[in-house]
Write a structure and sequence with these properties.
Blueprint: E1 6-10, H1 14-25, E2 29-33, H2 37-47, E3 50-51, H3 55-59, E4 64-67, H4 74-84, E5 89-92, H5 98-107, E6 116-117, E7 119-121, E8 142-146, H6 151-163, E9 167-171, H7 173-202, H8 214-220, H9 227-236, H10 238-260, H11 264-282, E10 291-299, H12 304-315, E11 319-326, E12 332-340, H13 344-353, E13 359-360
Parallel strand pairs: 1-2, 1-4, 2-3, 4-5, 5-6, 8-9
Antiparallel strand pairs: 7-8, 10-12, 10-13, 11-12
Helix pairs in contact: 1-2, 4-5, 7-10, 12-13
Length: 362
């Protein structure tokens, strides 16, 4: 399924609009529908999709329908899309799969279920709405697809996912939910809890947030996410997230006990193991042999990040991961840059040649 498709996007927020942009870029015709006409208009202006006045107008004649709405409305809309678009593969992008799959099986006609494939593109950010959408959000992104779907529908959907630039990972619904509870949902809860704790402490210590450094800002970035969206996600994946939270609390308590016992060797070992695991996470499969991480202090001015990346490009060094952290005092920041370990010396030489002062962390 690599020829031009007639794609219907139901729900034109951040993810829906990003998918529309990627589909248009790939040469597909795209129509969109959203219950919020103003959101739909903004999405159309940004993505190039053709706005539809109704769900039926959006999906009629489609060969592929993507339901990109909040979790509570997904099953009903999937069922309606299957009925209204009899030639279409219908998928969704909900971040919880078991709950949605069971509800779809109740909502949709049994004969139509062979055209339904649950999915979840692992993209997005703490921001929301079509104004923050980008086709690049899907470039190389992992897109989980239900491995138990009908083979013909599965083959068509995975071919299309590859066409727009993402990579398919096949998982069962329950395994998906267990894994994302740990690596997606738990980080959101941890970020929210830490931000809430600091905000509560601010009542007695008004200076506390003035002291917030880069690490705190990194860890609490997700706390700016949509509260309603995350309430839906956590409750829909209740059992898996409760288990993940229990394991996390157990790990925190273990580290707490080591600190309380002043066991320096074990505290250092715990940090070293986590550091090694994090460095492996930062590397793509082809650079699993090792990575080097640099902190590069930079002034806060237009074009500075472009100078860093241009320096690496001129030196022939590929950047495996990149992040910039702004100083709370303003005027400066720190670029955190990861490169393959074999390119570390050349990266450092090139940066110093441009008067940067990189600090190699690993």
């Amino acid at each position: 399924m690599t020829s031009a498709e007639r794609v219907a996007i139901v729900g034109t927020g951040l993810i829906g609009t990003s998918i529309a942009m990627a589909a248009v870029r790939a040469g597909d015709s795209v129509r969109g529908f959203d219950v919020d006409a103003e959101v739909l208009s903004r999405s159309a202006g940004r993505s190039g999709l053709v706005p539809a006045a109704t769900l039926q107008e959006c999906v009629t004649g489609a060969t592929l329908v993507l339901v990109c709405t909040p979790i509570p409305s997904v099953p009903q809309l999937v069922g309606e899309a299957l009925r209204l678009a009899p030639d279409a593969i219908v998928t969704d992008v909900a971040s919880v799969k078991t709950h949605v799959k069971l509800e779809v099986q109740v909502t949709a006609a049994t004969a139509d279920l062979v055209r339904y494939v649950g999915g979840h593109p692992m993209g997005g950010s703490e921001r929301s709405g079509p104004d923050h959408a980008s086709a690049s959000m899907l470039d190389g992104a992992v897109w989980v697809v239900d491995e138990t779907a009908a083979p013909a529908a599965l083959e068509r959907l995975t071919a299309w996912i590859a066409k727009i630039g993402a990579q398919t990972v096949l998982l069962s619904a329950d395994r998906h939910d267990r894994l994302v509870a740990m690596v997606s949902h738990l980080p959101q809860v941890a970020s929210t809890a830490l931000m809430g704790l600091a905000a509560a402490e601010e009542a007695g210590e008004p200076e506390i947030l003035l002291l917030a450094a880069g690490g705190f800002r990194d860890l609490t970035r997700l706390a700016a996410s949509n509260p309603h969206l995350w309430s839906d996600i956590l409750l829909a994946n209740r059992d898996a997230i409760v288990r993940a939270l229990d394991l996390y609390v157990e790990r925190l308590n273990g580290l707490r006990d080591l600190v309380a016992a002043e066991d320096a060797d074990e505290v250092e070992r715990a940090f070293a193991e986590s550091k090694e695991a994090r460095l492996s996470l930062a590397a793509k499969p082809q650079v699993k042999a090792g990575v080097a991480v640099f902190q590069v202090p930079v002034p806060d001015r237009p074009g500075i990040l472009a100078e860093v990346t241009a320096t690496m490009s001129e030196a022939g060094v590929n950047i495996e991961d990149l992040q910039i952290v702004h100083s709370p005092e303003g005027g400066r920041g720190t670029v955190h840059m990861t490169v393959a370990v074999g390119a570390a010396e050349e990266a450092e030489r090139a940066l110093r040649g441009r008067w940067f002062e990189p600090l190699r962390l690993a």
